[in-house]
C-alpha cells in the first residue's frame, strides 16, 4: 500500500517563509498524502467529514484546527459530510523556518515542544480554534514581514494553548524523529520500540533506567503524561497500524507481531482505542489513498 500514497510537492519555494490557501468549496477531493513541510489546517462548516492523521481516523465537527508535522500522512474526506459551502485555510511552512539553534532558546520552548508533538499531529481545542480563527481569516490580507510576524505570533499562541490533543500513536512515527528531553526516557522508549513484540515488563524497564519499580513508574508518568502500560499499548497499536497500512499481513499475523497474545484481545483493544476494527481501519485507510498510483 505504501507505493499508493501521494507525496505532495507543495508550491512553497525556498524564497518564501510560508504559503497560504484560503478556499471556499463544496467537498474534499484530495487523496491521503504527505509532504516535507509543516501544515496548519483550519476547516469550518464540514461536520461529518473524516480526518486521517497518521494512524488516527475520526469524524470532525463544525470547527477544526490541526497542525501536521513533516512527512506525516494526512487528509480530509467527505465521509458523512452532507455538502454545502465549507471553508478551508491551509498554511504550509518550511521545517527550517525556525533555525534549530534558535528553537533551543528558552523563549522558544513552547513552540519547540509543539513542533515535536506535531510529528504525530495536533488537534487544537474548540476554544483555541475560535480564538485563533479571526486571525487566520485576516492573515491573507497581511503582506511581507507583517505576515511572517503574524504567523509566528499565531504559532506561539497555539503552542501555549490548553487541551491540545496528540492524534497519532507514538509507535506509528519513527522513534528517531521524536524527542523526550530526557536521556533515561529516550533509552526506555528506544527499548520499547525495539521490543514491543516481546513480553515487556515495567520491572525490566525500571532496571534499564536504574530505578526502583515505584520510582520509575512515577518518573515515567511525570515525563510522558501517561502510565508505562498505556504507553506500551500505544506503541504496539502504532506499529500494528503501520503494518495494516504498509503490509499485506493478515490481522492475526499483525496481532502477534505487535505483541498481542491473541487475536480477540487485539481486536477488542484496537476498536476501543481507534473506534474501528483492524479490518475496518485497513479498508478506511486504503479507500482514502485514491485509485491512482503516486511516486
Task: Give the key terms.
295 residues; alpha+beta; Jelly Rolls; Arc Repressor Mutant, subunit A; 2 domains; six-stranded antiparallel beta sheet; three-stranded antiparallel beta sheet; 42% helix; disordered C terminus
Give a short summary of the structure:
The chain is α+β, with helices and mostly antiparallel strands and 295 residues long. It is 42% helix and 17% strand.
Determine the N-to-C terminus distance: 12 Å
- What portion of residues is helical? 40-55%
Total of domains: 2
Shape: globular
Q: Overall mean pLDDT score?
A: 90
Question: Might you state the CATH topology name of the largest domain?
Answer: Jelly Rolls
User: Based on DSSP secondary structure assignment, what is the total number of beta strands?
Assistant: 11
Could you characterize what this model shows?
This protein is an alpha+beta fold and about 300 residues long. The protein has a six-stranded antiparallel sheet. Strands 6-5-8 form a three-stranded antiparallel sheet, covered by helices on one side. Strands 1-3 form a two-stranded parallel sheet. The protein folds into two domains: about 1-165, Jelly Rolls, CATH 2.60.120; about 175-285, Arc Repressor Mutant, subunit A (Orthogonal Bundle). The chain starts with 5 loop residues before the first strand and ends in an 8-residue tail after the last helix. The chain contains eleven helices and eleven strands. The longest helix has 19 residues, at about 230-245.
